[in-house]
Amino acid sequence: MKVAFVGAGPGAADLITLRGARLLAEARIVMYAGSLVPPAVLEHCHADAERIDTSKLNLDEQQAVYERAQAAGVNVVRLHSGDPAIYGATAEQMRRLEKLGIPYEVVPGVSSFTAAAATITAELTKPEVSQTIILTRVSGRASPVPEKEALARLAAHRATLCIFLSGPQLPSIVADLLGHYPPGTPIALVQRATWPDERVHRSTLERVLDEVRVSEWQLTTMLLVGEALSREDGVESRLYAAGYAHRFRKAAKDEA
User: Fold this and answer.
1) Residues in domain Tetrapyrrole methylase (predicted)?
2) What is the pLDDT of residue 245?
3) Are 218 and 191 in contact, with CB atoms under 8 Å apart?
4) N or C: which end of the chain has fewer CB within 10 A?
5) Strand, coil or helix: what is 44?
């Protein structure tokens, strides 16, 4: 018996990994958060699998499912939206599995921040613009953000920011960011990336609050911020420059 923490991806059923889909097809118990994992992803499940919506269960109740599976000797897939390593609340489950002597593995998934970047066809790291990506969120009732990681402090780096669960907090987020980023900094709001009802709004820090109704942007909104989102021409990477040599390619003679 084994538990697999599987990244379901951002929403689209065909963005789950091949390994994740195979484990879903084999598992006899599948645990998932119904509020975050779309029904289409569950089509990868075995026809006879027991499907349990964990949005209705506390951690003790979820542990009881693991114990029941252990007694029955059946494998479990714990399906997490995006990638289990990012805001997945997996560490607390792993600690309990270890105490129960239940082996587990983790299968990565496509995160909503990369899905959002793909949706707006943006590269988040551009030469001489930004080579750093910061993944963060603002404090919520379930998990406060440590003061040392407050958004206003992270903004001082002016790196590419990917802010999870940002919709309802947009006014305070913009206020914090304008303390460091130029007003014309490009931003993109992407809600439920790759879902059928995906929404996108591109703007700048100084204009976005005048252009959107905050109440219409749900908790499942990703906010991308940074000059890397600009559509203007930029410096080309040296990686593919004719005069750049590496162990797989020689530099062109007239460029060396």
Assistant:
1) 2-207
2) 80
3) yes
4) C
5) helix
